[in-house]
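Q: I'm writing up a methods section and want to include an example of the input and output format. Could you take the sequence below and give the corresponding predicted structure tokens, formatted cleanly so I can copy it straight into the document?
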Amino acid sequence: MAHEKPNLNVVFVGHVDAGKSTCVGRLMYDTGNISDQILTKLKEEAQKHGKVGFEFAYVMDNIREERERGVTINLAYKKLVTQKWEVTIIDAPGHRDFVKNMITGASQADAAFLVISAPAGVQPQTTEHLWLLRTMGVKNLAVIINKMDDVEYKEETYNKVKEEVGNLLKQVGINPDETNFIAASGLKGDNIAKKSENMPWYKGPTVLEQFDLFPAPELPKDLPLRMPVQDVYEITGIGTVPVGKIETGVMKAGMKVIVLPGRTGKGIEGEVKTIEMHHEQLQEAVAGDNVGINIRGVGKKDIARGDVICDAAKPIPIVEEFVATITVINHPTVLAKGYTPVFHVHTAQVPCRFVELIAKIDPKTGQVIEENPEFLKNGDVAKVRIQPQGNLALETQSENPFMSRFAVRDAGQTVAAGMCTEITKKKN
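A: Here is the clean output for your methods example:
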């Protein structure tokens, strides 16, 4: 069965307590995707946990631990059908220690809503979220200035926050004049799915309308098949089911595939037996689809999060070392040769060593401003040589931009983000 509507993956990001989950929960409720019965139940549960007003957040935070702590830990996925799209909403955690899940979320997104709390304004993490979205290639962004009910729906507060966020957007190369800012209250439902009567001064779209204003994602169907594995499930009657988003290419039932790097680093071959999306069996799935599949010849021990399922005829390279362009976002001191943090590449996490700092680059012109710098500091853009300390599947920006981006993390912080430009393949 074909899609009735094209798929759009949208991530909601923002600082903890900016009200992301509440906005999404309210959206699902106001569009009829959650019944009154369920909401009443969630309301009672919220009161029981002493979290009055958290019922909308509970729609997304449906894991018990999250309810009790009142924070979003895992990525939650929800479906929403708009005039134009079948939307998969990814609610990404705002909490520091959950940024790595957020990276995975952003790397799957075609568009993003950045949620900012009107009373709190820009927070330190806001910049980090923007850099991540940018590096992960999310170009289409809208900003929700949430909790307008907490600032008496004042236009002045909205304008002040809008200006602050606008300045940040400029820093990461997004034009604020071409970005929609939505004045909203997730809790009260202002401008989420329905126009608010509390802000007659606001003339822009609702959150629901904004989905249809996002441009269609580029679906790179003509590149070779690449499906990074997000999770692996054991399902009774089916067997091992890896799930993830097809980043590029087309997957067909009966196709010969290879899982790389796999446990051995040499990959394991198999054949696609079944493809399932939203509980429907498909004969084929394409770039942009979130699917669960079963591969003949590939069992639970052969495949894990971070592996990439590829067309057997066009496998992804396993790299010995690679050259990348990185931006240093948030390093506590300076970044020097020999530094070995964890690289988050598609869904994989591999420690990698900086073996050479080749050159510092002017981000505006791309010209080299210093050869072989001693060290790099926050804000620097540089060309560097990197050696994975494990098996890493990666491609260059020119071969496959969707499989070339990464974030660098250390001690719970995103230190840098970048993209691979050259690779030296591992010799088997």
